[in-house]
Known about the structure:
The protein contains 19 helices and 13 strands. The chain has helices at 13-21, 145-156, 161-168, 172-187, 240-250, 252-255, 267-276, 286-311, 315-321, 325-329, 332-358, 375-383, 387-404, 409-425, 429-440, 442-446, 448-451, 456-471, 478-489; strands at 24-26, 31-33, 40-42, 47-49, 66-73, 93-107, 110-122, 129-131, 205-214, 218-225, 231-236, 260-262, 281-283. Strand 1 (24-26) and strand 2 form a beta hairpin. Mean pLDDT is 80; it is low at 1-29, 51-62 and 76-80.
Amino acid sequence: MNISTLDLNCHDVNTINAALLGYESVLDRDYLIIPGLEGFKQTGAPTYTSDSPREHNVESHQPQPCILINGVVRSNLVSDDEMICPHCGCRMHLNAHLSCKIRHVPIGFNPTVLDVGTKQYLCPNCKKVYREQVPFKACGHMITEHLQTFVEGLLESKLTLKEVAKITGLSQPVVKDIDKNRLNRKYTVNGEGKEFIKPEITSTKLGIDEFLLHSGHKYATVIIDLDTGHVLWLYHGKSKEAVYKFIEHVGMDWMKNVQCVVSDMNADFQSAFKEKCPWLKEVYDRFHLVKNFNDKVISEVRKDEQKRLIQEGRLEDAARLKGSKYILTTSAETRRQNDNKEEMKDGALRKRKRSNDKEETIFDAPPKKKTYQDLEATYQNIIKDNKLLLGLDFVKNAITDAYNTAYSYEVMNEQIVSIIDYCRGIDNKHFNWFANLLENHIDGICNYALFHITSGKVEGTNNMIKTLRRRHFGIPDDDYLFLKIMDESRR
């Protein structure tokens, strides 16, 4: 049916919506033939109604206007004379005509409700009651199978529960239940939602990390395949039990193909993998090493130096260290790039200011503060005549060089040992702490030269989890959250 053939002045909204969706209109355009509904026969013209069915949108204080279509189920298998009681075999009698409202795929921008009439039969012998079933009704909800498929398609296109509920007119709990059943069918054994399916493809490199599950220091563990980025396992807590359960889940035959595991310096994860799979190599990338150095060494040394200068009465030198954490933790290359970027911003700001002087603006915005700062010159001024701060820069550059030139285990081991010796030679408790950290994890650090893998995908997965929870305004159901994480990692 072509929309151009409609008389738009007749205000026949139902007919226009039907034409937009390809429905066929008959009998003076008062009736719709809805395809795919087995045994459904329409008995009345579609009407707008504010009657709220059982599954109305709970966010709206007033029922959402919808299209109500009246009809009955005409089954070819059952008639008044042929209904036999499944319990005693006696012929049943027609007892009553009943109706139920079932949500259907929206027509245009309006939710659709089918008012379906069915028959109820009574057995005169055993007094059992049988109600005629609606063949196109979805299991578990008062919606059609077509609407369930439509909702699943919207959810697969990364729409949130709230967005899908607004489009279909369903409540968010119903949409969530449909989505959870869909994910159970994809990622759990037999779709029962009790056990994750075993990965079909073996992995050679794994990544493991914990993420914050709930406030109050409640964490969960995630294990991913570094080759594909797929989430393989999720578990409550961040103890050894998470690793034990994962190995039990995939089996030792599957684990024999794994060569290495990249993680942060969590001792529980390391010992658990070594206990069950002693051939695995642990790998620590530069990110966690530098982060520990910045947080536990640079920050603490800067605070100690500032206190010492104040006690010695060198207030001007102590003032230079105030707010200098960013400058001390950045590399020379980052400082140079930042200086060039700030120079360009400053030039653009001056040009924009000259342009705004000639034009009137709608809002009287205050002038922007000058953000340009020569980081390299400030850094040189800070470390001047301070050997301890200069030592921080040496260790930081040595770590970077060790990872950038890591072409063999032996060469990288020599470089890390030289950094340990340098830290030992400085009479400072923070440098000694970092030397102990390197010494206790030297094997995992030097394994980077063998595999050249990082925890970038693991950190990206953690960011994906945070974004997923923000988009859905939080997901309190942990099982549903874990299923969503697995599904999101495979997009």
